[in-house]
Amino acid sequence: MLPYDRDLCARGAEVTVAAQACGRRIDCADAWIAATALLAGAPLIAHNRNDYLGVPGLTLVSHGPHLGGTRLRPGRSGAQRRRGQRGS
């Protein structure tokens, strides 16, 4: 586990903005996870890589669904899909 600090908060915001600029939504928790991996210089192991497709510079290791694998429902973030909730 890595502690959070200003750098992590700033990187999390950058991740969110970058994903939005690519036309992708990223859940707040997924942005924190991606930001932590980026700051640590570590690859991110994720079951659903679709949650992180809008994050530049992130190295993903995944055998889960990818482009063409699982259709995403518009308006729902990764965490909401896992919980079965609707987006706003």
Short description:
The protein has 88 residues and is mostly helical. It is 40% helix and 5% strand.
Molecular structure report:
This protein has 88 residues and is mainly alpha-helical. The protein has one domain (6-83). It is 40% helix and 5% strand. The chain is built from three helices and two strands, in the order ααββα. It has helices spanning 6-21, 28-40, 78-83; strands spanning 44-45, 60-61. The protein has a two-stranded parallel ribbon with strand order 1-2. The radius of gyration is 13 Å and the shape is globular. Mean pLDDT is 80; it is low at 68-76.
Q: What would you report as the Rg, rounded to the nearest angstrom?
A: 13 Å
- Assess the beta-strand content as a share of residues: under 5%
Mean pLDDT: 80
Assembly annotation:
single chain
CA distance, first residue to last residue: 31 Å
Q: Number of DSSP strands?
A: 2
How would you spell out the order of helices and strands? Answer: HHEEH
Number of helices: 3
Helix percent reads: 25-40%
Instruction: Please give the domain count.
Output: 1
Q: Structural class, from helix and strand content?
A: mainly alpha
Shape: globular
| pLDDT < 50 stretches | 68-76
Strand arrangement within the widest β-sheet reads 1-2
